[in-house]
Protein 1
Amino acid sequence: MAWTRDDMAARAAKELRDGFYVNLGIGIPTLVANMIPEGMTVTLQSENGMLGMGPFPFEGEEDADLINAGKQTITDLPQTSYFSSADSFGMIRGGHINLSILGGMEVAENGDLANWMVPGKMVKGMGGAMDLVAGVKRVVVVMDHCDRSGASKVKKACSLPLTGKGVVDLLITDLGVFEIDKQAGRAALIELARGVTLDEITAKTEASFSVALR
Amino acid sequence: MAWTRDDMAARAAKELRDGFYVNLGIGIPTLVANMIPEGMTVTLQSENGMLGMGPFPFEGEEDADLINAGKQTITDLPQTSYFSSADSFGMIRGGHINLSILGGMEVAENGDLANWMVPGKMVKGMGGAMDLVAGVKRVVVVMDHCDRSGASKVKKACSLPLTGKGVVDLLITDLGVFEIDKQAGRAALIELARGVTLDEITAKTEASFSVALR
Amino acid sequence: MSHKVFKDAAAALEGLTFDGMTVMSGGFGLCGIPENLIRALRDSNARELTVIGNNVGCDHHGMWLVLANNQIKKVLASYVGENKILEQRFMSGEIEIEFNPQGTLAERIRAGGAGIPAFYTRTGYGTKVAEGKETRQFNGEWYVMETGLVADLSLVKAWKADAEGNLVYRKTARNFNPMIATAGKVTVVEVEEIVPVGSFDPDQIHTPGIFVDRIVVGAHFDKHIERRTTRPRTENA
Amino acid sequence: MSHKVFKDAAAALEGLTFDGMTVMSGGFGLCGIPENLIRALRDSNARELTVIGNNVGCDHHGMWLVLANNQIKKVLASYVGENKILEQRFMSGEIEIEFNPQGTLAERIRAGGAGIPAFYTRTGYGTKVAEGKETRQFNGEWYVMETGLVADLSLVKAWKADAEGNLVYRKTARNFNPMIATAGKVTVVEVEEIVPVGSFDPDQIHTPGIFVDRIVVGAHFDKHIERRTTRPRTENA
């Protein structure tokens, strides 16, 4: 069973709070934009220089001067503001964004995150990911629990080069949810995905973790 | 004889070049604004956040939101731009201003400048002076050669706390003009004021200097 | 109306002030100061304040009111002239003043708001300002290390706001306000007018709403002018 | 017309390009790139360039043209995907790439333009990015020292300019352009339109003219869109 991509995005959406300013990464995190609860005001930041990101444009109304950090054409909203990349990352680095939801390749039990390069493969660059995980108040990673070979991506220690050291607050996988105490460097399993047993997730997790199911 | 305040400002105005961006300090330097040669474009910066400073307003047209760094009411011009203090001093510190003309209490032969405090007297603060002398490409100081007791303000070494170390390029006093080689730490007398003799200026100057009259 | 908009300056500071806190306030001289919020800060009677700003008001105006009410313990500023009470208390040692070069102060506040704990500047090298600070060379030139500044409370004056907290400043009243808006744990803004969301051109917002926690329309603006300088109408210009 | 305005992109770069120089270019992906000036840079045939920017174009567009013409030796960027030639030359060791976190890159350029030789950031601490760099603690947290960046030549895309060089950008085409405008020994700007001096509201100028040396109206704008994403018109939104 386990969770689908939409389920994982829906679980991530539960981290939203009224009035939050949020940065969403590419992939599953982008889906969260469509799952903001009715009546809740959430403002989306795009790190290329925009606060208040709107939906995709209607066909024929694309504007080459208006894209998000994933280089997709988007629209603005009545409350939108534009600013430079320096101001945008001042906002991020200065801790003004409440929540960053992004993808991962590996997360370690101490909150280390790897999501930007695989040695030996072409490196495309980290973009804004290192700044986001270093600067945003609360960092949520959404990723598959295991890679295609079945190996755990939830690690004792990351084997891939890090994006940030001790930066992940919450990890959502297709099998469950872990809360990470970055100070203590420890992970706790707080939720199981639909149809997933504690035995299954334990077997598929390299990291050590305590169990504190809610 | 020697130079009047207007003479000194007129001499300072000779340092202007077409297309220059210039910051003028309080006192004699302010007079330079009225001495920009016909046909020359000089843009005045005010460090509180304005480029393109206009003249004083007509009576009754003062705007409390529009003052210069001396807190005088002023006006803007068609080319004016406003910006924050951080952006203004980015402009100054980053070396984008061509010329700063400001007053001094003491200048030493190596280009040291003191103009912000006298020990034992109330300290009002340095305002933007330290940033200007540290950041602007060319720094011209205009001041009286001697204090009221007749003591030289052109020193071997400043006795007052410094505003900047090795920062003055040109010193204009009521008795003459000195060019300072900041790298070598040496001053050269390049002009005598009207009616001033080499003997007189030598007698009234504590600093050592070479003579290279033009 | 948004939850960010408050009915008056006292309400906008409600629950935010406490003894020993650090308060930043925008303005250059009396130009662009949050005068209504400053009066509310005085009325809050919070004491032992550390106040950060380019100036500390001048006689009978602006932050002078808080100073005269004996609420200030320490000041970080670049210029404190035209302020007799401050002079007296500084000379008598009752108030501590840390003088900062104006550009260094502006950059320290910007750094604080942008998550930069320290930076290097040539400003002040070889002067009293550098005493006790790390100095080092880059490319053969000497620089001084300066640290970022943040505050428990930032008081900002803008011209207009919308209910999202987007701000626009006017002329040289902008000065320190945009950086101070970013450097407060809580940022409260007073404006002359609140306009409907969508009124601003999104390319032309000086401070995005993310930095603003509370907004109030100032009840009364003195906008006292320190040096009224004019030219005669007969002059050709 | 001001001495800052040039007749075409080639004229605007005349005398400014040389082998081994450092060139900064604005843009995020292909959004807000100075595409006319980039074509003129290609035609200049200046070689052994170090290019600084968030990206280095993408296949057949933007700085890719300069890359494909074998003019680039080294790149400082945050993301270089969608660029096959760059991938090949990087993997083969022909081109050096220094990867910078996007915010660190933006801040390094801002610092360069603002006379700040170095600053500290939490970004990249404990990662490859921090290798060989000074790290230190402030208030119990670890930070990495990053240095300011300047360039021999900055190429900027703005929406509109006046003849004084005052600039206004449009939407997310602003991105790296404002900082890059401040960090060039010489800054050349291409715009879609030159408006008369006095047309801009002085409160609403993004880049003051002091930073701009030369201006040209771009002859042709592709404005290629990398990822055209739309929603159907039937949808309610």
Note: The domain at 5-211 of chain A is CATH 3.40.1080.10 (Glutaconate Coenzyme A-transferase).
Protein 2
Amino acid sequence: MSYTSDEMMTIAAARQLRPGQVCFVGIGLPSTAANLARNTHAAGLVLIYESGTIGAKPGHLPLSIGDGILAETADAVVSVPEIFNYWLQPGRIDVGFLGAAQLDRYGNINTTVIGGEYARPKVRLPGAGGAPEIAASCREVIVIVRQSRRTFVEKADFITSVGYGSGPGDRERLGLSGAGPATVITDLGIMAPDPETKELRLTHLHPGVTLDRAREATGWDLATAPDLDETAAPSEHELAALRALTAATPAPPSRGSQGG
Amino acid sequence: MSYTSDEMMTIAAARQLRPGQVCFVGIGLPSTAANLARNTHAAGLVLIYESGTIGAKPGHLPLSIGDGILAETADAVVSVPEIFNYWLQPGRIDVGFLGAAQLDRYGNINTTVIGGEYARPKVRLPGAGGAPEIAASCREVIVIVRQSRRTFVEKADFITSVGYGSGPGDRERLGLSGAGPATVITDLGIMAPDPETKELRLTHLHPGVTLDRAREATGWDLATAPDLDETAAPSEHELAALRALTAATPAPPSRGSQGG
Amino acid sequence: MAEVVPLKDAVATLVHDGDSVALEGFTHLIPFAAGHEIIRQGRRDLVLIRMTPDLIYDQLIGMGCASKLVFSWGGNPGVGSLHRFRDAVENGWPAPLELEEHSHAGMANRYVAGASGLPFAVLRGYRGTDLPGQTANIKPITCPFTGEELTAVPALNPDVGIVHAQRADRAGNVQLWGITGIQKEVVLAAHRSLVTVEEIVDELDPRPGAIVIPSWAVTYVAAAPGGSQPSYSLDYTIRDNDFYVAWDKIARDRETFRAWIDEHVLAEGSVPA
Amino acid sequence: MAEVVPLKDAVATLVHDGDSVALEGFTHLIPFAAGHEIIRQGRRDLVLIRMTPDLIYDQLIGMGCASKLVFSWGGNPGVGSLHRFRDAVENGWPAPLELEEHSHAGMANRYVAGASGLPFAVLRGYRGTDLPGQTANIKPITCPFTGEELTAVPALNPDVGIVHAQRADRAGNVQLWGITGIQKEVVLAAHRSLVTVEEIVDELDPRPGAIVIPSWAVTYVAAAPGGSQPSYSLDYTIRDNDFYVAWDKIARDRETFRAWIDEHVLAEGSVPA
């Protein structure tokens, strides 16, 4: 059964989530992956959207994190200050699921500006939304983003959300309670930080993707994990579930929209 | 129609409240007076209890500020942090209605300890409850308390809630946004601060009460306002409304229970 | 007590050139009708405050109503960019737009401080990001008990706070439910407030998940049926997702944008899209 | 996910000698059944935390379970004194009781900070009172933007937080309504939590004014029908005002107090009064 690289990426991301985990989800690819997990192997996955919906169980993919379906299916709906202060900030959330416009070798995320001066940028991106505190406070962070040299950069033009900062010890120094980006899922493969240097390195290549191609799509000299592996191809069950989920829904945006 | 001094006190207190005012009410005499006002001349008086009930309209007097009748009749019920942070602290409340165990010449209130050391007091009182912030943040404060030398003291053993501190300028210096105790209603008469010195002085004597008796019941040299007046006796309507209100209810406590 | 008045009069009385104005509604109950009335009344030099500027601020910015934007996420939710916002920032069209940028957590806590009568709020946020480098309104603060360093942001107290809600009664008590977002905080933080509602009813019967903002905490209430479209009011209207997608094309080009505003906002008898 | 267990087992597992324990319920939903179970299990040296100690802490203090009390108002609501509390403070019977005393606003904000993962909270409070002179847990703090001086209090994060609620479902999701008080904050601030409920149901149908605490944020749920009496659970039980009045006489005397506890708490088959 054939599939697209986006489908492989979304399915690989969904596989990262385990039943019973509590997941703070942004709109777009993160929401698609999280809902796919909930509809396949991770029943009981608790989805939290920053609009204040805790335990949302949308039947279709929401276009906005404020879609009515989220409030109508949630275990609890709380105010926006409460979702950030009582639920995200204390580190109660297992997994934070983020997108990115730029991602650097240490997993730092840029969703603010690209090129030029901050006040007169070449590209003005949406901005921070909930991402800085999701990246700071979730027990672990999963980043899902399409891979290219434009996106995977040596150094981000602007640090909107902190990964490992400038390397080992930075998160501790900054008092960030969460462990930081544990996994980066792309349309080419999967990356994870080197335990020593915290630099993102390749742990999996998706079927049919060569190491050269992954390296060409990365703005730094991409290292590989000793046990570099191939991602299992999507199962028919996974593909059917994903396509059922996306059928009724407009295409997700191409970059980190966790704020919307 | 005959009446008791407690009835005169409660009715005099009720008369202080005007229609449409927003009033933060403690249990006991304040609650009785506020509900009497709402049932007589001050329809539309908004009662707020620190249990989080905004716009409560109890048919009978609650024994506790958590009585079910308050939540069932309120316009809105909010959490305890919200009632203090969003509603009391910003100075939205017109009138704060307090009791006292000790009241000093500058309207400072003690509801904490009397005599001995703080750690081993002669009398351990209930403590602060909501009073310190009610006294600080309400636009004005009305104190209702039975008058005696034990209660009306030169200097309070402990300042639980600030009136005018040590005199003019203290509230401003402390950054207390409200105007402080504007009126003190007792079973003998009514006091208000001297505009110059902020010391409480007698403005009204209840019918049949002599100035000497009021002075004997005061622990400082009680001054009188130039226009010292006699309180109008309770009308039949006021007495009937008060007795209807208290009929169904246990006697109010004898001292500041705004925390309960 | 809130006065129930026509939308036009409420906006004319409350919103003046140069005011700081927060039109809130976190992805629900967005006050489009009030925003369009501000455009019709031709306000200028507004400091627009909003967590998610959304289409409504894209429209106000594109019409030159604003000189500054205080925000935390400026995109078209689920679709992509806000092109009028980007044109103002990247090219200064139709006017330069000063930015003050925060995270959602920072903005939410700024409203909470404003509603609480406090000059600032404390949070675990911004640490290690480049955001504090761009504004004086993000500063470190030290816990007086543990010595730990956290982040402080100043209170937001807009001159005018405007939100949409499902219902109000004739006395001006406001009731809203579903995603309640930051609505209550904005009304309580603002010096003057306007709540537009789907309908005015005799009685606010209790609803699961509903909050009530008492009349005496609101300045004006105005009826604006459908006034949150293309956003939505749970149980009254549904979100017009197609319009959010269509806006991408409308707003990409200055002329098509102006034409849309002329037809749907400025024309006689025009109604909120 | 919260485990639904018998009350006796929940208390035995969660509450140990020397723990800091907050049994909350602001004049509603006071967890008397859980408090009586703590007395039956003979806990000692507890640091008891509660805004309004009420009869339940009068009983725990009178039975010598506590070495310290953190509170903001220690009276019998609408009646007068808590005699066991006063006897402990004034005469050290049955054991000396250390006090840490705050205002309601201070205590509420300490729970909020605890629930928010912050080390402290900021409020306009305590200024000019004698309360800061009696504890190191009230300190001034300066706004980094305006220079204004306010008051800081440290977060409360009890070892154990215990509250009562109307209902839970079999998965351990908790629902409560009426005066919600500080219930959610205590559960979220505590390291371990127990929620006793009037009943366990298959489905938590939405209720006006109800809040839900999701199962995954709670440690244990235990069924305790009538478990808030002589306080009350709105729509299940009514407040026993007569008992609050009667308690004044029962607790005034050490022997009548002990006799009451023996009969109503310690005796085989005794149930919460």
Note: Residues 83 and 252 of chain D are 5 Å apart (CA to CA).
